[in-house]
User: Fold this.
Amino acid sequence: MDERIIPAGKLPADLLARLLGEIPLDDPNILVGPALGEDATAIRFADQILLFKTDPITFASDKLAWYLVTINVNDIACMGGIPKYLLATFLLPEGKTSRASVEKLFSDLQKACTSYNITLVGGHTEITYGINRPIAIGFMIGTLAGDTVIRTSGAGPGDLVLLTKSIPIEGIAVMAQEKADKLGLDSKSLEKARNLIYDPGISVLKDAQIALAQGGVTAMHDPTEGGLATGLHEIAAACGYGITVKMESIPILNLAQEILPRLAIDPLGVLASGSLVVCCKEGFAGKILSAWKKNGIPGSIIGKITHAKEMILVHEGRMDPLPEFTADEITKMFSS
Assistant:
Protein backbone atom coordinates (compact mmCIF):
# COMPACT_ATOMS: atom_id res chain seq x y z
CA MET A 1 0.00 0.00 0.00
CA ASP A 2 1.43 3.37 -1.06
CA GLU A 3 1.31 5.72 1.94
CA ARG A 4 2.67 8.80 0.16
CA ILE A 5 0.58 11.93 0.73
CA ILE A 6 -1.11 13.26 -2.41
CA PRO A 7 -0.85 17.04 -2.95
CA ALA A 8 -3.85 19.31 -3.48
CA GLY A 9 -5.45 19.02 -6.90
CA LYS A 10 -6.44 16.18 -9.19
CA LEU A 11 -5.51 12.61 -8.32
CA PRO A 12 -2.31 11.37 -9.99
CA ALA A 13 -3.22 10.21 -13.49
CA ASP A 14 -1.83 6.69 -13.04
CA LEU A 15 -3.79 6.15 -9.82
CA LEU A 16 -7.02 7.54 -11.26
CA ALA A 17 -6.70 5.51 -14.47
CA ARG A 18 -6.21 2.31 -12.49
CA LEU A 19 -9.14 2.97 -10.16
CA LEU A 20 -11.49 3.90 -13.01
CA GLY A 21 -10.36 0.84 -14.96
CA GLU A 22 -11.52 -1.40 -12.10
CA ILE A 23 -15.12 -0.17 -12.28
CA PRO A 24 -17.37 -2.80 -13.93
CA LEU A 25 -19.39 -1.45 -16.85
CA ASP A 26 -21.85 -4.16 -17.90
CA ASP A 27 -24.75 -1.92 -18.88
CA PRO A 28 -24.86 -1.56 -22.70
CA ASN A 29 -26.68 1.78 -22.32
CA ILE A 30 -23.52 3.40 -20.93
CA LEU A 31 -22.03 4.95 -24.06
CA VAL A 32 -19.26 6.90 -22.31
CA GLY A 33 -18.32 5.76 -18.84
CA PRO A 34 -15.66 6.81 -16.33
CA ALA A 35 -12.27 7.17 -18.02
CA LEU A 36 -9.24 9.42 -17.76
CA GLY A 37 -9.80 12.55 -19.82
CA GLU A 38 -13.51 12.12 -20.48
CA ASP A 39 -15.39 15.25 -19.37
CA ALA A 40 -18.76 13.66 -18.65
CA THR A 41 -20.73 10.47 -19.08
CA ALA A 42 -23.28 9.58 -21.77
CA ILE A 43 -26.14 7.17 -21.13
CA ARG A 44 -28.86 6.00 -23.49
CA PHE A 45 -32.43 6.14 -22.18
CA ALA A 46 -34.83 4.57 -24.67
CA ASP A 47 -34.54 6.72 -27.82
CA GLN A 48 -32.50 9.58 -26.34
CA ILE A 49 -29.01 10.11 -24.95
CA LEU A 50 -28.48 12.10 -21.77
CA LEU A 51 -25.19 13.57 -20.58
CA PHE A 52 -24.25 13.83 -16.91
CA LYS A 53 -21.50 15.88 -15.30
CA THR A 54 -20.36 16.75 -11.78
CA ASP A 55 -17.63 19.23 -10.88
CA PRO A 56 -16.67 21.21 -7.76
CA ILE A 57 -15.47 24.78 -7.28
CA THR A 58 -12.84 24.88 -4.56
CA PHE A 59 -10.53 27.86 -5.27
CA ALA A 60 -12.95 30.73 -5.86
CA SER A 61 -15.22 32.08 -3.11
CA ASP A 62 -16.45 35.21 -4.88
CA LYS A 63 -18.64 34.67 -7.98
CA LEU A 64 -18.99 31.09 -6.74
CA ALA A 65 -22.33 30.46 -8.42
CA TRP A 66 -21.15 31.75 -11.81
CA TYR A 67 -18.08 29.51 -11.70
CA LEU A 68 -20.16 26.51 -10.64
CA VAL A 69 -22.70 26.76 -13.44
CA THR A 70 -20.23 27.69 -16.17
CA ILE A 71 -17.64 25.00 -15.41
CA ASN A 72 -20.30 22.28 -15.53
CA VAL A 73 -21.85 23.77 -18.69
CA ASN A 74 -18.44 23.61 -20.36
CA ASP A 75 -18.04 19.88 -19.90
CA ILE A 76 -21.52 19.11 -21.25
CA ALA A 77 -20.67 21.29 -24.26
CA CYS A 78 -17.40 19.41 -24.82
CA MET A 79 -19.37 16.23 -25.46
CA GLY A 80 -21.55 17.95 -28.04
CA GLY A 81 -24.43 18.45 -25.63
CA ILE A 82 -26.93 21.10 -24.57
CA PRO A 83 -26.92 21.80 -20.81
CA LYS A 84 -30.46 21.63 -19.36
CA TYR A 85 -30.72 20.93 -15.62
CA LEU A 86 -28.58 21.54 -12.52
CA LEU A 87 -28.45 20.20 -8.99
CA ALA A 88 -26.13 22.20 -6.73
CA THR A 89 -24.54 21.40 -3.37
CA PHE A 90 -23.10 24.18 -1.21
CA LEU A 91 -20.94 23.51 1.86
CA LEU A 92 -20.66 26.82 3.73
CA PRO A 93 -18.17 27.59 6.53
CA GLU A 94 -19.34 27.61 10.13
CA GLY A 95 -19.06 30.99 11.81
CA LYS A 96 -18.73 32.90 8.52
CA THR A 97 -22.10 32.38 6.86
CA SER A 98 -24.98 34.81 7.29
CA ARG A 99 -28.56 34.68 6.06
CA ALA A 100 -27.76 37.58 3.74
CA SER A 101 -24.78 35.77 2.19
CA VAL A 102 -26.91 32.66 1.57
CA GLU A 103 -29.65 34.74 -0.06
CA LYS A 104 -27.06 36.39 -2.33
CA LEU A 105 -25.60 33.00 -3.22
CA PHE A 106 -29.00 31.65 -4.26
CA SER A 107 -29.77 34.81 -6.20
CA ASP A 108 -26.44 34.56 -8.03
CA LEU A 109 -27.08 30.89 -8.75
CA GLN A 110 -30.46 31.57 -10.29
CA LYS A 111 -29.03 34.40 -12.43
CA ALA A 112 -26.25 32.14 -13.68
CA CYS A 113 -28.70 29.36 -14.54
CA THR A 114 -31.00 31.79 -16.35
CA SER A 115 -28.13 33.12 -18.46
CA TYR A 116 -27.60 29.60 -19.87
CA ASN A 117 -31.30 28.68 -20.02
CA ILE A 118 -30.72 26.03 -17.35
CA THR A 119 -33.31 24.93 -14.81
CA LEU A 120 -32.20 24.53 -11.19
CA VAL A 121 -33.96 21.34 -10.08
CA GLY A 122 -32.49 20.59 -6.65
CA GLY A 123 -29.43 20.10 -4.51
CA HIS A 124 -28.30 20.51 -0.91
CA THR A 125 -26.98 23.36 1.25
CA GLU A 126 -25.49 23.17 4.75
CA ILE A 127 -23.20 24.93 7.21
CA THR A 128 -20.16 22.66 7.46
CA TYR A 129 -17.65 22.29 10.27
CA GLY A 130 -13.93 22.32 9.43
CA ILE A 131 -13.79 24.44 6.24
CA ASN A 132 -12.71 28.07 5.91
CA ARG A 133 -14.38 28.96 2.61
CA PRO A 134 -17.48 27.94 0.64
CA ILE A 135 -17.27 24.76 -1.45
CA ALA A 136 -19.70 24.18 -4.31
CA ILE A 137 -20.44 21.00 -6.27
CA GLY A 138 -22.59 20.91 -9.36
CA PHE A 139 -24.36 18.00 -11.02
CA MET A 140 -25.54 18.90 -14.51
CA ILE A 141 -27.73 17.04 -16.96
CA GLY A 142 -27.68 17.71 -20.68
CA THR A 143 -29.18 16.40 -23.88
CA LEU A 144 -27.27 15.53 -27.02
CA ALA A 145 -27.30 18.24 -29.67
CA GLY A 146 -26.77 15.85 -32.59
CA ASP A 147 -26.58 12.08 -32.95
CA THR A 148 -22.91 11.68 -32.05
CA VAL A 149 -21.25 11.90 -28.65
CA ILE A 150 -17.93 13.76 -28.84
CA ARG A 151 -15.40 11.80 -26.81
CA THR A 152 -11.98 12.96 -25.68
CA SER A 153 -10.79 9.55 -26.86
CA GLY A 154 -11.92 10.34 -30.41
CA ALA A 155 -8.75 12.23 -31.42
CA GLY A 156 -6.39 10.43 -33.80
CA PRO A 157 -3.02 10.83 -35.55
CA GLY A 158 -2.93 13.70 -38.00
CA ASP A 159 -5.65 15.68 -36.23
CA LEU A 160 -4.78 19.29 -35.57
CA VAL A 161 -5.10 20.73 -32.06
CA LEU A 162 -6.87 24.09 -31.87
CA LEU A 163 -7.24 26.47 -28.93
CA THR A 164 -9.70 29.31 -28.42
CA LYS A 165 -8.81 32.62 -26.76
CA SER A 166 -5.72 32.89 -24.52
CA ILE A 167 -4.54 31.18 -21.34
CA PRO A 168 -5.01 31.11 -18.42
CA ILE A 169 -8.27 33.11 -18.22
CA GLU A 170 -9.76 31.47 -15.14
CA GLY A 171 -6.46 31.34 -13.26
CA ILE A 172 -5.75 35.06 -13.58
CA ALA A 173 -9.35 35.91 -12.62
CA VAL A 174 -9.16 33.74 -9.49
CA MET A 175 -5.79 35.21 -8.51
CA ALA A 176 -7.12 38.75 -8.92
CA GLN A 177 -10.18 37.98 -6.82
CA GLU A 178 -8.58 35.93 -4.07
CA LYS A 179 -4.94 37.09 -3.87
CA ALA A 180 -4.94 40.64 -5.28
CA ASP A 181 -2.29 41.85 -2.82
CA LYS A 182 0.29 39.46 -4.33
CA LEU A 183 -0.12 40.51 -7.96
CA GLY A 184 1.37 44.01 -7.95
CA LEU A 185 -1.30 45.37 -10.30
CA ASP A 186 -2.69 48.89 -10.41
CA SER A 187 -6.43 49.28 -9.75
CA LYS A 188 -7.38 49.40 -13.44
CA SER A 189 -5.42 46.24 -14.31
CA LEU A 190 -6.75 44.47 -11.23
CA GLU A 191 -10.34 45.19 -12.20
CA LYS A 192 -9.64 43.99 -15.74
CA ALA A 193 -8.19 40.75 -14.34
CA ARG A 194 -11.20 40.16 -12.09
CA ASN A 195 -13.55 40.76 -15.00
CA LEU A 196 -11.92 38.05 -17.13
CA ILE A 197 -14.58 35.57 -15.98
CA TYR A 198 -17.05 37.66 -18.01
CA ASP A 199 -14.80 39.20 -20.68
CA PRO A 200 -13.76 37.16 -22.60
CA GLY A 201 -15.42 34.83 -20.10
CA ILE A 202 -14.82 31.29 -18.85
CA SER A 203 -17.62 29.72 -20.89
CA VAL A 204 -16.76 27.60 -23.95
CA LEU A 205 -20.34 26.72 -24.84
CA LYS A 206 -20.41 29.02 -27.86
CA ASP A 207 -16.90 27.95 -28.91
CA ALA A 208 -17.94 24.29 -28.89
CA GLN A 209 -21.23 24.81 -30.71
CA ILE A 210 -19.56 26.78 -33.49
CA ALA A 211 -16.81 24.19 -33.93
CA LEU A 212 -19.30 21.32 -34.11
CA ALA A 213 -21.35 23.12 -36.74
CA GLN A 214 -18.34 23.20 -39.10
CA GLY A 215 -17.75 19.43 -38.95
CA GLY A 216 -14.55 17.44 -38.60
CA VAL A 217 -14.35 17.66 -34.79
CA THR A 218 -12.93 14.48 -33.25
CA ALA A 219 -12.51 15.58 -29.63
CA MET A 220 -13.02 18.59 -27.38
CA HIS A 221 -11.69 19.28 -23.90
CA ASP A 222 -12.04 22.04 -21.33
CA PRO A 223 -8.61 22.55 -19.68
CA THR A 224 -9.47 23.33 -16.08
CA GLU A 225 -7.39 22.33 -13.07
CA GLY A 226 -3.78 21.74 -14.02
CA GLY A 227 -4.10 24.06 -16.99
CA LEU A 228 -3.61 23.54 -20.70
CA ALA A 229 -0.73 21.08 -20.26
CA THR A 230 -2.83 18.80 -18.06
CA GLY A 231 -5.73 19.02 -20.50
CA LEU A 232 -3.46 17.94 -23.36
CA HIS A 233 -2.07 15.06 -21.29
CA GLU A 234 -5.65 13.96 -20.59
CA ILE A 235 -6.52 14.00 -24.29
CA ALA A 236 -3.45 11.89 -25.05
CA ALA A 237 -4.28 9.43 -22.27
CA ALA A 238 -7.85 9.10 -23.54
CA CYS A 239 -7.04 8.59 -27.22
CA GLY A 240 -3.82 6.61 -26.75
CA TYR A 241 -1.61 8.80 -28.96
CA GLY A 242 0.91 11.62 -28.51
CA ILE A 243 0.73 15.36 -29.05
CA THR A 244 3.33 17.81 -30.29
CA VAL A 245 2.66 21.42 -29.28
CA LYS A 246 4.42 24.64 -30.28
CA MET A 247 4.89 27.03 -27.37
CA GLU A 248 5.07 30.03 -29.68
CA SER A 249 1.60 29.17 -31.02
CA ILE A 250 -0.05 29.20 -27.60
CA PRO A 251 -1.55 32.65 -26.91
CA ILE A 252 -0.79 33.87 -23.38
CA LEU A 253 -2.85 36.64 -21.79
CA ASN A 254 -0.98 39.94 -21.52
CA LEU A 255 -1.87 40.10 -17.83
CA ALA A 256 -0.47 36.60 -17.35
CA GLN A 257 2.78 37.59 -19.04
CA GLU A 258 3.03 40.45 -16.56
CA ILE A 259 2.05 38.55 -13.41
CA LEU A 260 3.19 34.94 -13.64
CA PRO A 261 6.96 35.26 -14.20
CA ARG A 262 7.30 37.27 -10.97
CA LEU A 263 5.53 34.49 -9.09
CA ALA A 264 7.48 31.64 -10.75
CA ILE A 265 4.18 30.22 -12.07
CA ASP A 266 4.06 28.37 -15.39
CA PRO A 267 1.04 29.51 -17.49
CA LEU A 268 0.72 26.00 -18.94
CA GLY A 269 -0.20 24.66 -15.50
CA VAL A 270 -2.80 27.21 -14.37
CA LEU A 271 -6.60 26.90 -14.38
CA ALA A 272 -7.49 27.51 -18.02
CA SER A 273 -11.28 27.46 -18.24
CA GLY A 274 -12.45 29.87 -20.90
CA SER A 275 -10.23 28.30 -23.55
CA LEU A 276 -11.45 25.29 -25.50
CA VAL A 277 -9.17 22.61 -26.93
CA VAL A 278 -10.55 21.17 -30.16
CA CYS A 279 -9.04 18.28 -32.09
CA CYS A 280 -10.19 18.12 -35.69
CA LYS A 281 -9.41 16.67 -39.10
CA GLU A 282 -6.81 18.85 -40.81
CA GLY A 283 -9.13 19.82 -43.67
CA PHE A 284 -11.67 21.36 -41.27
CA ALA A 285 -9.31 23.51 -39.20
CA GLY A 286 -9.59 26.54 -41.48
CA LYS A 287 -13.40 26.45 -41.43
CA ILE A 288 -13.49 26.25 -37.65
CA LEU A 289 -10.99 29.08 -37.18
CA SER A 290 -12.87 31.28 -39.66
CA ALA A 291 -16.21 30.60 -37.98
CA TRP A 292 -14.77 31.45 -34.57
CA LYS A 293 -13.29 34.67 -35.95
CA LYS A 294 -16.64 35.71 -37.45
CA ASN A 295 -18.15 35.31 -34.00
CA GLY A 296 -15.44 37.28 -32.21
CA ILE A 297 -13.61 34.25 -30.81
CA PRO A 298 -9.85 34.15 -31.41
CA GLY A 299 -8.49 30.74 -32.32
CA SER A 300 -5.08 29.19 -32.93
CA ILE A 301 -3.54 25.97 -34.21
CA ILE A 302 -1.22 24.94 -31.38
CA GLY A 303 -0.24 21.38 -32.26
CA LYS A 304 -0.94 17.98 -33.77
CA ILE A 305 -1.88 14.46 -32.65
CA THR A 306 0.94 11.99 -33.42
CA HIS A 307 1.31 8.22 -33.67
CA ALA A 308 4.24 8.32 -31.25
CA LYS A 309 3.02 8.24 -27.66
CA GLU A 310 5.17 11.21 -26.73
CA MET A 311 4.12 14.57 -25.36
CA ILE A 312 6.41 17.15 -26.94
CA LEU A 313 6.65 20.90 -26.38
CA VAL A 314 8.57 22.71 -29.10
CA HIS A 315 10.01 25.99 -27.83
CA GLU A 316 12.54 28.15 -29.65
CA GLY A 317 13.44 25.20 -31.85
CA ARG A 318 14.07 22.88 -28.90
CA MET A 319 11.96 19.76 -28.29
CA ASP A 320 11.25 18.99 -24.62
CA PRO A 321 8.68 16.86 -22.81
CA LEU A 322 5.41 18.72 -22.25
CA PRO A 323 5.37 19.57 -18.53
CA GLU A 324 3.25 17.56 -16.13
CA PHE A 325 1.83 19.25 -13.04
CA THR A 326 1.05 17.23 -9.91
CA ALA A 327 -0.96 20.23 -8.67
CA ASP A 328 -2.33 23.31 -10.36
CA GLU A 329 0.25 26.08 -10.35
CA ILE A 330 -2.29 28.39 -8.67
CA THR A 331 -1.87 26.41 -5.44
CA LYS A 332 1.45 28.21 -5.00
CA MET A 333 -0.60 31.34 -4.33
CA PHE A 334 -2.76 29.66 -1.70
CA SER A 335 -0.01 27.77 0.10
CA SER A 336 2.39 30.71 0.52
